[in-house]
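Researcher: I've been going back and forth with a colleague about how UbiA-like protein EboC might be arranged in three dimensions. Neither of us has a model we trust, so I'd like an independent prediction. The organism is Dyadobacter subterraneus, in case that matters for your notes. Sequence below.
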Amino acid sequence: MAELKPYLQLTRPANLVTAIADILAGMAIAGFPFSSFDPALLVVSTLGLYGGGVVMNDVFDAKLDAIERPERPIPSGKVPLQSATILGITLLLIGIAAAAIFSFQSGMIAVVVAALTVLYNRFAKHHVFFGPLTMGMCRGGNLLLGMSVLPESFQQWGFVALLPIAYIGAITLISQDEVHGGKRRTLYIAVLLYLVVLSAQLFIAQSKGNILFALPFVLLHAWLIGRPLYNAIQNPVGPLIGKAVKAGVISLIVMNASWCVAFGLLPVGLAVLALLPLSILLARVFAVT
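Model: Here is an independent structure prediction for UbiA-like protein EboC. You can compare it with whatever you and your colleague have in mind.
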């Protein structure tokens, strides 16, 4: 088990739970009745895509991590670079294959998400604009992957995938200052992007007559991401920014639960919310960023 743990660390288990929540939220937005287990392949797909993506993140950052984060699995020597590369590529291929088996549309979305993941890790990551945009597109694509359970939903609700782009863009933007500290201006931009997402959820919930059920979920989400971000704004040092990033990632589960409830699926929203304690528990054992 001790030998396996560094490989698990590379996949960010706490984050993998949030990827599952993306799929469930996408299915809820599409109007899937959750009457069968057929879309389980989409869950397998997102685990492969997300896991492969974060593993390749550490592969491409191996030299930088040797300086800034030598305790990570690759620079510490616990996982050879070649082994990590094989693991990352294999997981991405599993993600694509699982989606393609489910449907052609799902497979195409998975291919795009995998390509965006590599593009982010190899080229866009350290760019102040294209980095957050590309990572946000990966998460938006993940939501579309869930919606592909009923692809006819794209025409009406496909625009909702823009909101995870804004949300993840905010997290990625502030994470660029996680090691050395940052500027309040960046954090204020993140606040604005967060507010766009929260407001959109409330608007859609109101338009569908589900505002009373969705409001507690949205408020919980606002509190979970707002408190650490406020602390970081007061003192924009690396550790506090890191806590704001961690809260933003894990709170994706609450955002996805809010989507489920906004679209009238309270039981599914509660089920998604129940993933939060699991993600928090895993975050205590495995790094989130």
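Researcher: What would you highlight for our discussion?
Model: I'd start with this: The radius of gyration is 18 Å. After that, consider the following. The chain is about 75% helix and 0% strand.
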